[in-house]
Amino acid sequence: MTFLNQEIIKNKRDGKVLSQAEIDFFIQGIAKNSVSEGQIAAFAMAVFFQGMNAQERIDFTQSMVNSGDVMDWSDLNLNGPILDKHSTGGVGDKISLMLAPIVAACGGYVPMISGRGLGHTGGTLDKFDAIPGYDATPDNALFRQTVKEVGCAIIGQTANLAPADKRFYATRDITATVDCIPLITASILSKKLAEGLDGLVMDVKTGSGAFMVEQKDALELAQAIVEVSSVKTTAIITDMSQVIGYTAGNALEVAETIDYLTGKKREPILHKLVETLCAQMLVQGQLVNDFDAGIAQVNAVIANGKAAEVFAKMVSALGGPNDLMENPDKYLAKAPIIQSIYPLQEGFVSEMDTRMIGMSVVELGGGRSVATDKIDYAVGFSQFCHIGDKVELDKPLAFVHAHTQEQADLAKEKVLSYIRISQSPQSSPQVVRKFIS
Questions:
Q1: 51: how many CB neighbours lie within 10 A of its CB?
Q2: Does domain 74-164+176-328 have CATH number 3.40.50.1100?
Q3: Domain 333-422 carries which CATH code?
Q4: Cα–Cα distance between 125 and 130 in angstroms, integer?
Protein backbone atom coordinates (compact mmCIF):
# COMPACT_ATOMS: atom_id res chain seq x y z
CA MET A 1 0.00 0.00 0.00
CA THR A 2 1.31 3.44 -0.96
CA PHE A 3 0.90 6.64 1.04
CA LEU A 4 2.16 10.20 0.82
CA ASN A 5 4.66 11.02 3.56
CA GLN A 6 3.18 14.49 4.04
CA GLU A 7 -0.30 13.02 4.53
CA ILE A 8 0.99 10.71 7.27
CA ILE A 9 2.62 13.71 8.95
CA LYS A 10 -0.59 15.74 8.56
CA ASN A 11 -2.68 12.94 10.09
CA LYS A 12 -0.49 12.81 13.16
CA ARG A 13 -0.27 16.59 13.34
CA ASP A 14 -4.06 16.69 13.48
CA GLY A 15 -4.18 14.12 16.29
CA LYS A 16 -5.38 11.17 14.24
CA VAL A 17 -4.42 7.58 15.05
CA LEU A 18 -2.02 6.19 12.47
CA SER A 19 -2.62 2.72 11.05
CA GLN A 20 0.05 0.02 11.11
CA ALA A 21 0.30 0.34 7.32
CA GLU A 22 0.95 4.09 7.52
CA ILE A 23 3.60 3.64 10.21
CA ASP A 24 5.31 0.80 8.29
CA PHE A 25 5.38 2.89 5.11
CA PHE A 26 6.94 5.89 6.86
CA ILE A 27 9.56 3.88 8.77
CA GLN A 28 10.57 1.90 5.68
CA GLY A 29 10.93 5.24 3.92
CA ILE A 30 13.32 6.41 6.62
CA ALA A 31 15.42 3.26 6.20
CA LYS A 32 15.41 3.58 2.39
CA ASN A 33 16.05 7.36 2.39
CA SER A 34 12.78 8.16 0.63
CA VAL A 35 11.76 10.22 3.68
CA SER A 36 13.71 13.47 4.06
CA GLU A 37 15.26 14.86 7.25
CA GLY A 38 12.67 17.63 7.17
CA GLN A 39 9.85 15.08 7.05
CA ILE A 40 11.40 13.08 9.92
CA ALA A 41 11.65 16.30 11.96
CA ALA A 42 8.03 17.23 11.18
CA PHE A 43 6.80 13.76 12.10
CA ALA A 44 8.80 13.75 15.34
CA MET A 45 7.39 17.14 16.33
CA ALA A 46 3.84 15.97 15.51
CA VAL A 47 4.31 12.93 17.77
CA PHE A 48 5.90 15.14 20.45
CA PHE A 49 2.73 17.25 20.67
CA GLN A 50 0.04 14.69 19.79
CA GLY A 51 1.52 11.53 21.33
CA MET A 52 0.72 7.97 20.31
CA ASN A 53 -1.78 5.51 21.73
CA ALA A 54 -0.74 2.06 22.96
CA GLN A 55 -1.23 0.31 19.61
CA GLU A 56 0.60 3.04 17.69
CA ARG A 57 3.56 2.70 20.05
CA ILE A 58 3.67 -1.07 19.51
CA ASP A 59 3.37 -0.72 15.71
CA PHE A 60 5.95 2.09 15.62
CA THR A 61 8.49 0.09 17.65
CA GLN A 62 7.99 -3.10 15.65
CA SER A 63 8.40 -1.16 12.38
CA MET A 64 11.70 0.19 13.72
CA VAL A 65 12.81 -3.36 14.59
CA ASN A 66 11.85 -4.63 11.14
CA SER A 67 13.68 -1.80 9.34
CA GLY A 68 16.83 -3.93 9.45
CA ASP A 69 18.19 -7.30 10.52
CA VAL A 70 16.79 -9.23 13.47
CA MET A 71 19.31 -11.59 15.04
CA ASP A 72 18.52 -15.30 15.04
CA TRP A 73 20.44 -17.53 17.43
CA SER A 74 18.61 -20.80 16.78
CA ASP A 75 21.34 -22.27 14.58
CA LEU A 76 23.90 -21.97 17.41
CA ASN A 77 21.99 -24.41 19.64
CA LEU A 78 22.64 -22.35 22.75
CA ASN A 79 21.79 -24.09 26.02
CA GLY A 80 20.43 -21.01 27.79
CA PRO A 81 18.25 -17.93 27.28
CA ILE A 82 19.25 -14.81 25.32
CA LEU A 83 19.07 -11.91 27.80
CA ASP A 84 20.02 -8.25 27.92
CA LYS A 85 19.73 -5.11 30.01
CA HIS A 86 19.48 -1.48 28.99
CA SER A 87 20.13 1.60 31.09
CA THR A 88 18.84 5.11 30.44
CA GLY A 89 22.33 6.31 31.38
CA GLY A 90 24.10 8.06 34.19
CA VAL A 91 27.41 9.18 35.67
CA GLY A 92 29.81 6.39 36.64
CA ASP A 93 27.38 3.81 35.22
CA LYS A 94 29.72 0.92 34.49
CA ILE A 95 27.11 -1.69 35.46
CA SER A 96 27.02 -3.35 32.02
CA LEU A 97 30.70 -4.24 32.30
CA MET A 98 30.02 -6.41 35.37
CA LEU A 99 26.50 -7.51 34.47
CA ALA A 100 27.15 -9.23 31.13
CA PRO A 101 29.87 -11.59 32.42
CA ILE A 102 27.95 -12.27 35.65
CA VAL A 103 24.80 -13.34 33.79
CA ALA A 104 26.89 -15.38 31.35
CA ALA A 105 28.59 -17.12 34.28
CA CYS A 106 25.10 -18.00 35.55
CA GLY A 107 24.09 -19.69 32.29
CA GLY A 108 22.59 -16.86 30.24
CA TYR A 109 23.78 -15.50 26.89
CA VAL A 110 24.18 -11.72 26.61
CA PRO A 111 24.64 -10.21 23.11
CA MET A 112 24.76 -6.63 24.34
CA ILE A 113 24.54 -3.84 21.78
CA SER A 114 25.73 -0.66 23.49
CA GLY A 115 26.34 2.97 22.60
CA ARG A 116 28.84 5.75 23.05
CA GLY A 117 28.43 8.67 25.40
CA LEU A 118 27.06 12.06 24.44
CA GLY A 119 26.44 14.84 26.92
CA HIS A 120 26.88 14.14 30.63
CA THR A 121 26.36 10.35 30.47
CA GLY A 122 29.26 8.02 29.79
CA GLY A 123 28.98 5.41 27.05
CA THR A 124 29.67 1.71 27.60
CA LEU A 125 31.59 1.44 24.32
CA ASP A 126 33.85 4.34 25.31
CA LYS A 127 34.86 2.38 28.39
CA PHE A 128 35.78 -0.63 26.28
CA ASP A 129 37.69 1.62 23.87
CA ALA A 130 39.96 2.37 26.84
CA ILE A 131 41.12 -1.27 26.61
CA PRO A 132 43.89 -1.54 23.96
CA GLY A 133 42.95 -3.84 21.08
CA TYR A 134 39.31 -4.38 22.10
CA ASP A 135 37.19 -4.43 18.93
CA ALA A 136 33.78 -2.90 19.67
CA THR A 137 32.70 -3.33 16.06
CA PRO A 138 33.57 -6.95 15.16
CA ASP A 139 32.09 -8.69 12.15
CA ASN A 140 28.93 -10.71 12.73
CA ALA A 141 30.79 -14.05 12.69
CA LEU A 142 33.13 -13.04 15.54
CA PHE A 143 30.26 -11.50 17.50
CA ARG A 144 28.20 -14.69 17.29
CA GLN A 145 31.21 -16.91 18.01
CA THR A 146 32.07 -14.87 21.13
CA VAL A 147 28.49 -15.05 22.41
CA LYS A 148 28.41 -18.83 21.88
CA GLU A 149 31.83 -19.64 23.32
CA VAL A 150 32.15 -17.01 26.07
CA GLY A 151 28.51 -16.32 26.89
CA CYS A 152 28.57 -12.57 26.27
CA ALA A 153 29.87 -9.92 23.92
CA ILE A 154 29.49 -6.16 24.31
CA ILE A 155 29.71 -4.35 20.98
CA GLY A 156 28.34 -1.33 19.10
CA GLN A 157 25.28 -1.08 16.89
CA THR A 158 25.83 -2.62 13.45
CA ALA A 159 24.76 -0.78 10.30
CA ASN A 160 21.92 -3.23 9.67
CA LEU A 161 20.46 -3.21 13.18
CA ALA A 162 17.39 -0.92 13.40
CA PRO A 163 18.81 1.46 10.72
CA ALA A 164 15.65 3.60 10.75
CA ASP A 165 16.33 4.45 14.39
CA LYS A 166 19.80 5.77 13.53
CA ARG A 167 18.39 8.35 11.11
CA PHE A 168 15.41 9.12 13.29
CA TYR A 169 17.49 9.69 16.43
CA ALA A 170 20.02 11.91 14.62
CA THR A 171 17.18 14.21 13.56
CA ARG A 172 15.51 14.16 16.99
CA ASP A 173 18.80 15.14 18.59
CA ILE A 174 18.90 18.45 16.69
CA THR A 175 15.17 19.26 16.74
CA ALA A 176 14.37 19.22 20.49
CA THR A 177 12.29 16.05 20.22
CA VAL A 178 14.48 13.64 22.17
CA ASP A 179 12.42 13.79 25.37
CA CYS A 180 9.24 12.22 23.98
CA ILE A 181 8.05 8.97 25.60
CA PRO A 182 6.75 7.19 22.43
CA LEU A 183 9.93 8.06 20.52
CA ILE A 184 12.27 7.14 23.40
CA THR A 185 10.45 3.83 23.86
CA ALA A 186 10.76 2.90 20.19
CA SER A 187 14.40 3.97 20.01
CA ILE A 188 15.44 1.88 23.01
CA LEU A 189 13.37 -1.19 22.20
CA SER A 190 14.05 -1.29 18.46
CA LYS A 191 17.74 -1.98 19.03
CA LYS A 192 17.18 -4.40 21.91
CA LEU A 193 14.41 -6.42 20.27
CA ALA A 194 16.52 -6.70 17.11
CA GLU A 195 19.00 -8.70 19.22
CA GLY A 196 16.58 -11.65 19.22
CA LEU A 197 16.09 -11.66 23.01
CA ASP A 198 14.15 -13.98 25.29
CA GLY A 199 14.11 -11.44 28.13
CA LEU A 200 15.03 -7.82 28.85
CA VAL A 201 15.59 -5.80 32.01
CA MET A 202 15.40 -2.01 31.82
CA ASP A 203 17.32 0.15 34.29
CA VAL A 204 15.38 3.43 34.26
CA LYS A 205 17.28 5.98 36.32
CA THR A 206 15.91 9.01 38.13
CA GLY A 207 17.63 11.81 40.02
CA SER A 208 20.02 14.70 39.37
CA GLY A 209 22.25 12.69 37.01
CA ALA A 210 19.46 10.96 35.09
CA PHE A 211 17.80 11.76 31.79
CA MET A 212 14.48 11.49 33.64
CA VAL A 213 15.19 13.68 36.67
CA GLU A 214 11.69 13.34 38.15
CA GLN A 215 10.54 9.89 39.30
CA LYS A 216 7.09 10.36 37.73
CA ASP A 217 8.72 10.73 34.29
CA ALA A 218 10.90 7.67 34.89
CA LEU A 219 7.80 5.68 35.85
CA GLU A 220 6.00 6.78 32.70
CA LEU A 221 8.90 5.67 30.52
CA ALA A 222 9.29 2.37 32.41
CA GLN A 223 5.60 1.55 32.04
CA ALA A 224 5.66 2.44 28.33
CA ILE A 225 8.63 0.15 27.68
CA VAL A 226 7.08 -2.79 29.52
CA GLU A 227 3.76 -2.32 27.69
CA VAL A 228 5.33 -2.02 24.23
CA SER A 229 8.02 -4.72 24.46
CA SER A 230 7.30 -7.95 22.62
CA VAL A 231 9.52 -10.04 24.93
CA LYS A 232 9.35 -10.61 28.68
CA THR A 233 10.47 -7.28 30.13
CA THR A 234 10.88 -5.84 33.62
CA ALA A 235 11.77 -2.22 34.27
CA ILE A 236 13.47 -1.21 37.51
CA ILE A 237 13.49 2.41 38.68
CA THR A 238 16.89 3.15 40.25
CA ASP A 239 18.54 6.14 41.86
CA MET A 240 20.88 8.41 39.89
CA SER A 241 21.30 11.24 42.40
CA GLN A 242 25.01 10.53 42.90
CA VAL A 243 27.99 9.04 41.09
CA ILE A 244 27.62 5.25 40.75
CA GLY A 245 30.57 3.48 42.29
CA TYR A 246 33.84 5.22 43.04
CA THR A 247 34.83 6.39 39.55
CA ALA A 248 33.65 8.45 36.58
CA GLY A 249 35.86 8.33 33.50
CA ASN A 250 36.55 5.57 31.01
CA ALA A 251 39.82 3.86 31.99
CA LEU A 252 39.06 4.52 35.66
CA GLU A 253 35.72 2.73 35.34
CA VAL A 254 37.35 -0.25 33.64
CA ALA A 255 39.83 -0.42 36.52
CA GLU A 256 36.95 -0.30 39.02
CA THR A 257 35.20 -3.09 37.10
CA ILE A 258 38.29 -5.27 37.40
CA ASP A 259 38.55 -4.50 41.13
CA TYR A 260 34.87 -5.37 41.53
CA LEU A 261 35.01 -8.68 39.65
CA THR A 262 38.26 -9.81 41.28
CA GLY A 263 37.07 -8.88 44.77
CA LYS A 264 39.70 -6.25 45.41
CA LYS A 265 37.12 -3.52 46.11
CA ARG A 266 33.33 -3.18 45.73
CA GLU A 267 31.37 0.00 46.36
CA PRO A 268 28.09 -0.98 48.12
CA ILE A 269 25.67 1.10 46.01
CA LEU A 270 27.17 -0.19 42.78
CA HIS A 271 26.97 -3.75 44.10
CA LYS A 272 23.32 -3.33 45.05
CA LEU A 273 22.49 -2.21 41.52
CA VAL A 274 24.54 -4.96 39.87
CA GLU A 275 23.09 -7.80 41.91
CA THR A 276 19.52 -6.49 41.55
CA LEU A 277 19.66 -6.15 37.76
CA CYS A 278 21.51 -9.44 37.30
CA ALA A 279 19.15 -11.35 39.58
CA GLN A 280 16.12 -10.03 37.69
CA MET A 281 17.70 -11.10 34.39
CA LEU A 282 18.14 -14.61 35.77
CA VAL A 283 14.47 -14.61 36.77
CA GLN A 284 13.48 -13.41 33.28
CA GLY A 285 15.48 -16.24 31.72
CA GLN A 286 14.08 -18.85 34.16
CA LEU A 287 17.61 -19.67 35.27
CA VAL A 288 16.50 -19.41 38.92
CA ASN A 289 13.21 -20.01 40.71
CA ASP A 290 12.91 -16.58 42.30
CA PHE A 291 14.64 -13.25 42.86
CA ASP A 292 16.35 -14.27 46.12
CA ALA A 293 17.81 -17.33 44.42
CA GLY A 294 19.05 -14.99 41.69
CA ILE A 295 20.81 -12.77 44.24
CA ALA A 296 22.50 -15.83 45.73
CA GLN A 297 23.61 -17.10 42.32
CA VAL A 298 24.98 -13.71 41.30
CA ASN A 299 27.07 -13.41 44.44
CA ALA A 300 28.27 -17.00 44.05
CA VAL A 301 29.76 -16.46 40.56
CA ILE A 302 31.40 -13.23 41.71
CA ALA A 303 32.89 -14.92 44.79
CA ASN A 304 34.18 -18.02 42.98
CA GLY A 305 35.82 -16.00 40.19
CA LYS A 306 33.67 -17.29 37.31
CA ALA A 307 32.37 -13.82 36.41
CA ALA A 308 35.91 -12.40 36.29
CA GLU A 309 36.95 -15.32 34.11
CA VAL A 310 34.13 -14.64 31.64
CA PHE A 311 35.04 -10.94 31.48
CA ALA A 312 38.66 -11.83 30.75
CA LYS A 313 37.64 -14.28 28.01
CA MET A 314 35.33 -11.73 26.37
CA VAL A 315 38.05 -9.07 26.32
CA SER A 316 40.55 -11.53 24.85
CA ALA A 317 38.10 -12.92 22.27
CA LEU A 318 37.39 -9.42 20.99
CA GLY A 319 41.05 -8.48 20.58
CA GLY A 320 41.99 -7.14 24.00
CA PRO A 321 44.96 -8.27 26.13
CA ASN A 322 44.98 -11.81 27.57
CA ASP A 323 46.25 -10.62 30.95
CA LEU A 324 44.16 -7.49 31.54
CA MET A 325 42.73 -8.79 34.83
CA GLU A 326 46.19 -9.55 36.21
CA ASN A 327 47.91 -6.42 34.89
CA PRO A 328 45.39 -3.58 34.38
CA ASP A 329 48.02 -0.91 35.10
CA LYS A 330 50.02 -2.20 32.14
CA TYR A 331 47.23 -1.39 29.69
CA LEU A 332 44.89 1.30 31.05
CA ALA A 333 45.88 4.92 30.39
CA LYS A 334 46.80 7.09 33.36
CA ALA A 335 46.47 10.86 33.59
CA PRO A 336 49.70 12.79 34.26
CA ILE A 337 48.02 14.83 37.03
CA ILE A 338 46.14 13.21 39.91
CA GLN A 339 45.12 15.51 42.76
CA SER A 340 42.86 15.47 45.80
CA ILE A 341 39.69 17.53 46.03
CA TYR A 342 39.38 18.61 49.67
CA PRO A 343 36.14 20.01 51.12
CA LEU A 344 35.91 23.60 52.31
CA GLN A 345 33.98 22.64 55.45
CA GLU A 346 33.23 19.64 57.64
CA GLY A 347 29.84 17.96 57.81
CA PHE A 348 27.96 15.38 55.76
CA VAL A 349 27.41 15.05 52.01
CA SER A 350 23.72 15.86 51.53
CA GLU A 351 23.31 16.39 47.80
CA MET A 352 25.25 16.53 44.54
CA ASP A 353 24.54 17.88 41.07
CA THR A 354 25.43 14.63 39.36
CA ARG A 355 24.66 15.84 35.86
CA MET A 356 27.19 18.66 36.21
CA ILE A 357 29.77 16.27 37.67
CA GLY A 358 29.30 14.24 34.49
CA MET A 359 29.82 17.41 32.45
CA SER A 360 33.07 17.97 34.37
CA VAL A 361 34.31 14.64 33.02
CA VAL A 362 33.42 15.88 29.53
CA GLU A 363 35.29 19.15 30.14
CA LEU A 364 38.35 17.19 31.24
CA GLY A 365 38.24 15.47 27.84
CA GLY A 366 36.62 12.23 28.98
CA GLY A 367 33.37 12.66 27.05
CA ARG A 368 31.83 14.31 24.00
CA SER A 369 30.07 17.60 23.44
CA VAL A 370 29.45 16.56 19.83
CA ALA A 371 29.60 13.07 18.33
CA THR A 372 32.92 13.73 16.53
CA ASP A 373 34.88 14.71 19.68
CA LYS A 374 37.88 12.53 20.55
CA ILE A 375 38.13 11.16 24.08
CA ASP A 376 40.97 11.20 26.59
CA TYR A 377 40.39 7.82 28.26
CA ALA A 378 42.64 8.54 31.26
CA VAL A 379 40.80 11.52 32.76
CA GLY A 380 37.94 11.64 35.25
CA PHE A 381 37.40 11.19 38.97
CA SER A 382 38.17 8.40 41.44
CA GLN A 383 37.32 7.67 45.09
CA PHE A 384 34.20 9.82 44.71
CA CYS A 385 32.22 10.49 47.86
CA HIS A 386 28.57 9.50 48.35
CA ILE A 387 25.52 11.07 49.93
CA GLY A 388 25.61 10.46 53.69
CA ASP A 389 29.43 10.33 53.89
CA LYS A 390 31.01 12.21 56.79
CA VAL A 391 33.18 15.07 55.51
CA GLU A 392 36.47 16.10 57.12
CA LEU A 393 38.87 18.80 55.98
CA ASP A 394 41.75 16.36 55.52
CA LYS A 395 39.65 13.71 53.76
CA PRO A 396 39.23 14.15 49.95
CA LEU A 397 35.76 14.24 48.42
CA ALA A 398 37.35 12.73 45.30
CA PHE A 399 40.52 12.67 43.23
CA VAL A 400 40.66 14.42 39.87
CA HIS A 401 42.63 12.82 37.02
CA ALA A 402 43.56 15.48 34.45
CA HIS A 403 45.85 16.11 31.50
CA THR A 404 46.85 19.63 32.55
CA GLN A 405 47.04 21.56 35.82
CA GLU A 406 44.61 24.14 34.46
CA GLN A 407 42.02 21.41 33.80
CA ALA A 408 42.58 19.94 37.26
CA ASP A 409 42.15 23.31 39.01
CA LEU A 410 38.95 24.09 37.11
CA ALA A 411 37.52 20.64 37.80
CA LYS A 412 38.27 20.91 41.52
CA GLU A 413 36.59 24.31 41.74
CA LYS A 414 33.50 23.10 39.90
CA VAL A 415 33.13 19.81 41.78
CA LEU A 416 33.24 21.67 45.10
CA SER A 417 30.33 23.81 43.89
CA TYR A 418 28.36 20.70 42.84
CA ILE A 419 28.52 18.96 46.24
CA ARG A 420 26.39 20.24 49.11
CA ILE A 421 27.58 19.76 52.68
CA SER A 422 25.11 19.68 55.59
CA GLN A 423 25.87 19.97 59.28
CA SER A 424 23.42 17.20 60.19
CA PRO A 425 23.80 13.48 59.38
CA GLN A 426 22.24 12.41 56.07
CA SER A 427 20.80 9.08 54.97
CA SER A 428 21.77 7.55 51.64
CA PRO A 429 19.03 7.61 48.96
CA GLN A 430 17.04 4.45 48.25
CA VAL A 431 19.01 2.76 45.47
CA VAL A 432 16.28 0.55 43.99
CA ARG A 433 12.94 2.34 43.88
CA LYS A 434 10.39 0.18 42.04
CA PHE A 435 9.91 -2.93 39.86
CA ILE A 436 7.49 -2.72 36.89
CA SER A 437 6.58 -5.79 34.87
A1: 14
A2: no
A3: 3.90.1170.30
A4: 9
List pLDDT tens digits, range 271-319.
999 999 999 999 999 999 999 999 999 999 999 999 999 999 999 999 9
Summarize pLDDT for 254-271 with one digit per residue, the tens: 999 999 999 999 999 999
271 is catalytic: no
Q: With contact defined as beta carbons under 8 Å apart, do 56 and 18 qualify?
A: yes
pLDDT band at 119 (very low <50, low <70, confident <90, very high): low
Q: Where in the chain is the domain with CATH 1.20.970.10?
A: 5-65
Q: Does domain 5-65 have CATH number 3.40.50.150?
A: no
pLDDT tier at 371, thresholds 50, 70, 90: low
The candidate with the shortest Cα–Cα distance to 155, out of 114, 212, 196, is 114
Determine which one of 84, 126, 203, 353 is catalytic. 84
Of the residues 94, 120, 127, 191, only one is catalytic, namely 191
| Residue 382 bears catalytic tag | no
CB-based contacts of 261, cutoff 8 Å, min separation 6:
98, 101, 302, 307, 308, 311, 325
**Is 187 one of the catalytic residues?**
yes
Q: Verify whether residue 34 is a known catalytic residue.
A: no
> Over 70: is that where the pLDDT of 188 sits?
yes
